[in-house]
């Protein structure tokens, strides 16, 4: 099928950047991104592209170039579905917070609603592409909903998992290691391969069956997360010995069989994918009775939780076993640099733990505002919204944030943190002044020369 119009349901971190790049590289295809969230669509349509709902280096420029030409943002979902030959489902699939599979399985209600919406309004044949991270065999569910609508519209289902990482989304989309398309219908697969083919070399476009494609996404994320948990496990051992985790990571990373990427010891991985996808993998394995397989992958998550807890425990015990009434400055709230996404960010859990000990938390993140910080904490439901509001303040300036603080905790590896006037920070802090560098981005000897009590991960 020749594709002239594409619709993407879900204007989020995946849908937004992916469609922007597809539109840029396919000027003859009309790309419409729809969402039920009116405020989000309004922000995507904001005259001033610095107000886009998602921060991603390079994204604003592409939106500016294509918006109103062949890239459109709207809440008119039905119209966009009707006119398009290809529909991407790019809605959120959070971990279930209720019922069977609570805390493990992916909640597919948004995906199901989309499938029903498509089934209801489609009057011509459609290729439906699942873009959200979905548990294996979701395509089957989508297919069954679409095919049981009674109309004679023909639907082909494809799985096209996203491998972009936030913070480098545009770069990852422009130069992907590979694009994966899983499906039954060769014609549908080739239609999508042609869309990517306008900028991705054909040999990088892999075609598989739907189930392999779905499982590859979970597997890729599980392998990446496993590396982080592995190096984080070693970081704890380093702290008990004279070893330095950076040196260990460098030494093993130079083994070409291992490779150097994803070996940065940290406060623990966050983001919308790793935890969710591994829990999903564990859930699927358990549902097939594969206990050892499930336990094996679950340990990656257990270690990650341990790493976050260890960081806050260490902070508390270093501050003489009490942080009650003390100001703790947290630099960074996003789950990694160059994004305003905070989903599953380690900062949330570390803050929550410190708040249980009645600390006062001051937050500074270049791209995250106070309301988002409070929403993240309120979502955990550990204490009342009023209490969170009393105990947590966010600032627009790092020096305000750290003024009179007992300790600074570095939660995100934002580049700007490295260039601060740390002498000034030190002068304004309570003494002794502590730094807990959760990302190993500052120089230990430099910090100690200023007078800081410095500790980092695995050193
Ligand atoms: C990830 C996958 O990389 C991507 O392919 C998939 O499509 C979605 O999930 P993302 O969550 O955006 O992408 O970010 P990623 O760069 O993978 O980082 C995930 C977390 O791991 C972050 O919290 C990051 O800070 C942490 N991390 C990463 C480490 O702690 N150490 C590392 O060495 C690398
Ligand atoms: P991701 O990181 O997977 O892109 P986001 O949460 O950033 O996730 O984006 C998902 C988007 O999907 C949200 O903006 C949400 O409003 C939208 N969405 C969810 N369900 C529907 C639906 N049935 N129809 C249209 N949009 C939806």
Automatic annotation (TrEMBL):
<dbReference type="InterPro" id="IPR014027">
    <property type="entry name" value="UDP-Glc/GDP-Man_DH_C"/>
</dbReference>
<dbReference type="InterPro" id="IPR008927">
    <property type="entry name" value="6-PGluconate_DH-like_C_sf"/>
</dbReference>
<comment type="pathway">
    <text>Nucleotide-sugar biosynthesis; UDP-alpha-D-glucuronate biosynthesis; UDP-alpha-D-glucuronate from UDP-alpha-D-glucose: step 1/1.</text>
</comment>
<dbReference type="Pfam" id="PF00984">
    <property type="entry name" value="UDPG_MGDP_dh"/>
</dbReference>
<dbReference type="InterPro" id="IPR017476">
    <property type="entry name" value="UDP-Glc/GDP-Man"/>
</dbReference>
<keyword id="KW-0520">NAD</keyword>
<dbReference type="InterPro" id="IPR036220">
    <property type="entry name" value="UDP-Glc/GDP-Man_DH_C_sf"/>
</dbReference>
<feature type="domain" description="UDP-glucose/GDP-mannose dehydrogenase C-terminal">
    <location>
        <begin position="329"/>
        <end position="444"/>
    </location>
</feature>
<comment type="similarity">
    <text>Belongs to the UDP-glucose/GDP-mannose dehydrogenase family.</text>
</comment>
<keyword id="KW-0560">Oxidoreductase</keyword>
<dbReference type="InterPro" id="IPR036291">
    <property type="entry name" value="NAD(P)-bd_dom_sf"/>
</dbReference>
<dbReference type="Pfam" id="PF03721">
    <property type="entry name" value="UDPG_MGDP_dh_N"/>
</dbReference>
<dbReference type="Pfam" id="PF03720">
    <property type="entry name" value="UDPG_MGDP_dh_C"/>
</dbReference>
<dbReference type="InterPro" id="IPR028356">
    <property type="entry name" value="UDPglc_DH_euk"/>
</dbReference>
<dbReference type="InterPro" id="IPR014026">
    <property type="entry name" value="UDP-Glc/GDP-Man_DH_dimer"/>
</dbReference>
<protein>
    <recommendedName>
        <fullName>UDP-glucose 6-dehydrogenase</fullName>
        <ecNumber>1.1.1.22</ecNumber>
    </recommendedName>
</protein>
<dbReference type="InterPro" id="IPR001732">
    <property type="entry name" value="UDP-Glc/GDP-Man_DH_N"/>
</dbReference>
